[in-house]
Every structure is written in C-alpha cells, then in structure tokens.
Amino acid sequence: MKALQIIETAYRGTLEEQDDTIIWLTHSMRDAGAELSVLLTGNAVNYAVKGQDASGLSFGDWKQTNPPRIEAELEKLIGKGVPVYAVRDDIDRRGLGKVAKVTGVQLVARNALAALLEAHDLVWHW
Amino acid sequence: MSSFMLISSRDPFECGDTENFYRLAVDLKTGGSDVTLFLVQNGVLPARDGAENLALRQVVHSGVRVVADEFSLRERAVGRSELADGIAAVSLERVVDALAAGAKTIWH
Amino acid sequence: MSNPKTLAFAIMDPPFESARSTTFFRLLEIAAGRGYNLNVFAYEGGVHLSFEQQKAHGNGVHGTDVETEHHPLPKIWVGEIIATAKKNGGAVNWVNCGLCADERGIDKVVEGVRRGGPADFWKLAAASDNSLVIGTR
Q: Which residues on chain A are in Cβ contact (under 8 Å) with B108?
C-alpha cells in the first residue's frame, strides 16, 4: 500500500508547531514503515526553496529557540526514501524556476499529476 | 485504471486551486479512469445555472460525472431545477458508496 | 451485516470553524448506519471534536434558552456515531493524536475515544478497506 501525501497550504501553524504538521506526520508514519510520497502543490511548493529561515520569533522574554526547519525536514524525508514532488507550474507561477531548491525534489508538470495519482493506492490531500 | 471520487468543497470564486482540481478530474478521465466530481459545501455554488462556471462546464463536457450534495444545495437555496446542465443533485451516500467500492477518494 | 466494510477517516478541523467537520460527521453517520467499522484519526484541531468539556448555551440573539436553542455539540455526535455503529453491528475506533491533544489542553474526551500517536493513522488506514483524509486550510 502506497500513499501520496498532498500538501497544498504552506506555513500553516508552522511557527507554533515547529514543523509543517504533514511533513512531521509523514516522518512519523515513514518511521513506522509506511510507504509514502509527498506532493507539494499550491504555495507549499515554497517548501522546496533553499534558504528558509524562521528564526527570531520572540514575545517579551520568550524567545523561539527551536524554530521550524522545514527545508531540513524535507531533506531528511528524502533521505528516508520518501519521494518528494513539486508541481512545476506552481513553481513557475511563483517565480521559483531559477531559485535554488532542496536537492532531490522532483518537479512534475500539472498535466502529469493524473499519472502520479494512478501510481499510488491512496491519495491524501491534507 | 482506477476509479476516482474527487470531492470539491471549495468555491472556485474564492479558491484559485479549485480549477486545478477540476482540471485534474478531466486529466484523470482523459487517461481512462472512471471519475466522479462530487461538489459539496461551498463547492456547489458554481453548479447554479447562470454562474460563471466555464471550467466546471468543461468538466461536464469531458465526460466526468458531476454531482452535487443535495443538502449543501438546499442549504444554499439552489433548487434542482436551477442546476447547470449535466449536474445532478445526489445524496452524500454517494461518497460512502465510492469509499466502500474502493475508489480513490480525494478531498479538496 | 456480513463482511462489513472498514473505512478510515482523518480529520484536522476543530468544530465551529468550517463546514468540513459537519460533512465529516455526516459521512460517519451514513457509514455507521450501514454497519461499517470506522477508524477515525483526529489530528491537530480535530482533537477538539471529542472534547468532553463542550457546553451548550442559550442564544440571546435568537431569543432562546439552552433547551430551546439545542446547540450542536460534536462531542455528542461522536457518542451518537459510536452508538449507531454498534446498533448496526459495526464498531468505531476513534484515535486522538496525543501530542495534538496535549498542546491544546484537551485532557478530557468522551467515552470511546482513545489517545494514540501520529503513526496510528497509517496503521488505521492499513487495516481498512479505504480511507479519506479531510485536511484543513
């Protein structure tokens, strides 16, 4: 059983959760033996961009000492054998075509998504 | 090829990605899959005849089965006779039927 | 019912914020009425759905008291879904993400809901005939 995890909304609660909750969930399930792929679409394609820095949040004396490191979490996921795809059309529309990206993220054209969905037993759009 | 139940819960007037979801339905159908597009919640709003719904009409013309949740329609005062051509009002049971039959069921 | 189906659902939304949580319960009601077994994974805000401390209220704008307003409380719906499934020969296995509950202070939940870990959704889905994720926005 192979599932495709679709992430469409970026930075949803990430500063409070110290991670993207679906990338985090994907790590947890992968560690438990799940066979998963990740598809970044919509503004979540920005997760593939190198140089994200969420440090520096503070409220009064409280300082964020362990900010989310989404780019690194994505790299770790790829290192665990989870294929990570990003929709090329969404990348291009956001001017990210020539921006440095996380190594290993595979770009896929929107008109090739049907085949990607066919290749998975389950499709979970979070 | 697989069967797909695509659940569209968002209004394309509000959410730009909804038309991408419609397009996915067409692409899956073109690839030979059996595809139902199930409109629910604010996703039923473009089903009203007279709404600016060119993208949804293209889904209907592609041969994708397009249906709308009768409860969501009634809640939004969209009568069955006011539905655009090719769109039928159905019960939410249709989604559970699809799940039980093993269709890849995707919420958008 | 012979050979009942088992369906898994994941939900991320808390109640009272979107139409998604209501549609989610409508789906569960249909499946429970058919005697299906239901595996539910409540993730992030979804852990609020079974929070035991939800309280009904009257509504001054509607001019109603508590009894007349009959305010919907999802914790009651959870109990009803569990009862409906049982009546029809099915069962509900409802798992709240434990860390999600902790960070939100959801320490009391209705009967029939248990605490689990993030990987439980994979286990629930693997043990089911099909699954549906209802993400949040």
A: 125
